[in-house]
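Sharing a chain and its predicted structure for anyone who wants a worked example. Both blocks are below, sequence first, tokens second.
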Amino acid sequence: MTIRRLALLAGLLVTAALSGAPAEAQVAGNPTASAFSASFREWMSLHQVPAASGAIMKEGRLVSTFGFGGMHAATPAPIASLSKAITAICVAHLVDAGWLSFTTPLGSVLARTFARLGQPADPRFRTITIEQLLMHRAGLAREPLRGPTERDLTGRFISTLATPLTSDPGGAMVYSNIGYITLGMVVEAVTGTDYERFCREASLRPMQASGTIDPQLRQRASSGGWRVSAIDYARFIQVFEPGSAALGPLGRQWQEARTGNPAYGLGIRMRRTEQGLLLTHTGRLTRQIRSGSLVIKFPNGMTAVAIFSGDPLQGATADLRRRLETAGTGL
């Protein structure tokens, strides 16, 4: 099979060189895939993206993988906010294990943590529940107030404790990275185990995936610190398929009960369409590491994961999402 036909197969990343993983299925000649091949080339040029990797799955089977500019689909790379789903599935595991509930308030689950690290500056912080954190409805700011240099998750959480809420918990969705930092601390408080170690075992391993926290992003660990390959993230995100190994009945019921269109559930954005449920998330890193990521899980069983390096122009990720969604509905 030629490189051109493999590009038609996936329709995601047109690259100078294939990564090592072979294609397992054929969609050769699909006109939608062919059109997107040209569309992706245009996207990389338009937004000055120097390198990218990607993986395509269809109904849980790896279809094709691509890498360009030195990136490879089987090599771990920073996934930024795609890390939130790893944290959320880890928290759902604790709920299904009976160690936690979605309505548990932070004043209860983090009482010992507050005693050790300091009390929250805003008393409303204690009333925030686990599900409010998961859904970005905790009334928290997006980022913490600046404080001492943060070297790890605990350091970022100390800054979070010093940051006043912007609104009462339970209100409208306002995307918050420090909400997922707090969930990482909840995992450590409940399990008595390092966040990275526990969530790798609870979230990734059951999905036959692996990953590590980037040493430069330890302070962002649970909100945006994971390094995972495009292939492994495509495997992991199948957790939202019925009967997947890493999501138990209580977590699945909670996820399916999220109302609103769009809605935000277990670290993923949810949009109900005429074809079914579309799941998507994007990620960006702009400081220590400049990179981005995107995952889309289509109602037709197709999953696309893209990870790219550099600092593309404003609107690049939104543009890629539109192009992927257009292509995915026809694959």
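Comments welcome. DSSP finds 13 helices and ten strands in the chain.
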